[in-house]
Structure formats: C-alpha cells, structure tokens
Description:
177 residues; 9 helices; 3% strand
Amino acid sequence: MIDPEGIETLCSDMEVHHTDVRILMLAWKMKAEKQGYFTLEEWRRGLKALRADTVSKLKKALPELEKEVRRPTNFLDLYSYSFRYCLTEEKQKSIDIESICQLLDLVLGSQFRAQVDYLIEYLKIQSDYKVINMDQWLGFYRFCNEISFPDFSGYDPELAWPLILDNFVEWMRAKQT
C-alpha cells in the first residue's frame, strides 16, 4: 500500500506537484478506490497499462495519459471518477462546496476556464447549497459542454437541468445587466 506520504514522495520523484491533475489521472488509470492510497494491485494495474516499470518511465508516460484523457468518453469517465474519488466516507453521496470548487478548477478549469471561474464564484456566494451530489456534478459538465457561454444560447430552463444550474444562469444574467 502506498499511503499519502508515499504518494507525495512519488510526486516529488516525478517532479509533479501532488495537486496536479495528472496525479488524479494516474489514480483514474489505476482505478484507485481510496483517495491518497494506491494498493499493490492498483499500482500494478496502472503501471502495466502505462507500460512503465520505473519512476522515470512513469513520468514519461504522463503526456500520453493526458492525451488519452482528452478523448471525450475518457474525459467523462475521469470527470465522474473524480467525484467518486472524493467521496471519502462510507455511504457518502455528496461533496462540500469548498471541495467541489477545488475539484471543478482541477478537472474542468483547463477546458472551460470562464464557466468554471463564474461557477466557482457563484457556488461560493450562494447559500442554498452546502453540498453537491453526483447528478449536479454531471450537470456542470453537460452544461459547460452544451451551453454557449456567456450568452447562454441553447439554454432552456424547461429542460431537466439541476436547479442549481437554473439558479446559476439567473445569477449570471442578473450580473450581465
């Protein structure tokens, strides 16, 4: 078992910060179940899939892993995984707003910078939601992918968007006027 300290050492050896999205991608590739830990089986699975048997080869495999994750089906899988990976307690089904803001920035920030920045701003000032569930999390991704920003063309509040996104659009439109 590699524990959080071991993962930090691994990151240091690979010259990658432990909060870098590529570490999340690595955990995804290993199908790691518990945040901050890699079991021997997960470690072997990930390294075999990346064809890496040394830290040096693992570091060299990261750009290829990034390319793999950029494929839409893989990205959606990583995006869903990132939420589940942050569920650290037994039977936990939601994640606090502060953690969601960090996760949004980490996972979606490079692809949808403007949307993510405004969404984070909104999440931090609103008071209706203390936590986010998986449906809302997946809604954020779908929203960023499907809705034109910042004019929101293509957004129909009659469609089945999570209420938090209806509220976000309302807040953004009020902000724009």
